[in-house]
Amino acid sequence: MQNEESLILRAQKHDQEAFTQLYEEYFDKIYRYVTLKLGNAMEAEDVTQQVFLNALQSISSFKWKGIPFSAWLFRIAHNQVVDYWRKKKRATVPLDESLPSSNGNPQQAVERKLDIERLLRATRRLTEAQREVISLRFTSELPIAEVARVMGKSEGAVKALQHSAILALRQELLAAEAVAENER
After folding, report:
1. Which of 83, 102, 155, 160 is the most exposed place for a label (fewest CB within 10 A)?
2. Residues 145-153: contacts with CB within 8 Å, 24+ apart?
3. Is the pLDDT of residue 92 over 70?
4. CATH class of this structure's domain 104-184
5. What is the mean pLDDT of residues 100-114?
6. How far apart are CA 177 and CA 79, in angstroms?
7. Are 88 and 38 in contact (CB under 8 A)?
8. Boundaries of every domain in the chain
9. Could you tell me the pTM of the whole model?
């Protein structure tokens, strides 16, 4: 891929090929982030498309100030997710029932679905900042420095949030496992 800065400059001059390359580079990461936030793959596709439409419409306002292009895209994605939930006025995130299984084994598919449900329940007990860090770090696979830029926090604050979130998730999942064992 060409230098990102030159691609952005070209996209700002309405070069469709340059914007297409940026779209292809970042679509999967933005989609995974939005899917985790919404819990619904079909809705996430629509919101992700809106993120890129907004990016295309406002790319001329992007300025290189030491902040990567991806941080700018994730900020747009975050705002789209907030708008989505504001419109839906829902307090909970539904589990997408159409999650594909990794193979054709029905027992593994059920176990995977139960694991995902436990993980979603556990993440709901985290603070909003902890959920955001987990989403950006592990779903969108961003490095700590980039997560810090997206969230407007220091790298140390992001590391602390990640650490506390992982500990909280571990405790919640262990508690859920103990309950499941008692039910068997």
Report:
1. 102
2. 146/68, 146/70, 146/71, 149/67, 149/68, 149/71, 150/70, 150/71, 150/74, 150/75, 150/78
3. no
4. mainly alpha
5. 69
6. 35
7. no
8. 1-93, 104-184
9. 0.61
